[in-house]
Amino acid sequence: MKRFDVVTLFPEMLNALTEYGITRRARDSGFFELVAWNPRDFSGNAYRSVDDRPYGGGPGMVMMADPLAKAVRAARSRQKSCGVARSRTVYLSPQGKPLDQAFVDELARDEGLVMLAGRYEGVDERLIELEIDEEVSIGDYVLSGGELAAMVIIDSIVRRIPGVLNDACSATQESFVDGILDYPQYTRPEVYADRAVPQVLLSGNHAEIQRWRLKQALGRTWRRRPDLLEKLKLDAEQAELLEEYRADYGETEKTGVK
Ligand code: 9D3
Question: Which fold has domain 173-258?
Answer without folding.
Answer: Trp Operon Repressor; Chain A (1.10.1270)
